[in-house]
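Onboarding guide, step 5: your first structure request.
Type a short instruction followed by the sequence, for example:

Predict the 3D structure of this protein.
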Amino acid sequence: METPMTAIEMTGVVDEQHRLKLDQLLPIPGPTRVRVIILLPSEPEDWDESEWLRAAASNPAFDFLKEREEDIYTLADGKPFYDQG
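The system replies with structure tokens like these:
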């Protein structure tokens, strides 16, 4: 059985020696082992809109939206939006 984990979001820099340096001190006592997930910014040209939509549509985090109880809107709801720009 896996141990529940808590996420802490912080920013930092990877230096020339490939070491991660955080912008602030961690809010946890140490020494202790941690798991680290590194999120790198994507360049705008790396992902087009269809790739973002495909990733969102296949992400299991949004599976709850497929449940019948979540389908609460119809085509009769709301008003059409016409972009004037």
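Each response can be followed by summary notes, for example: DSSP finds one helix and two strands in the chain.
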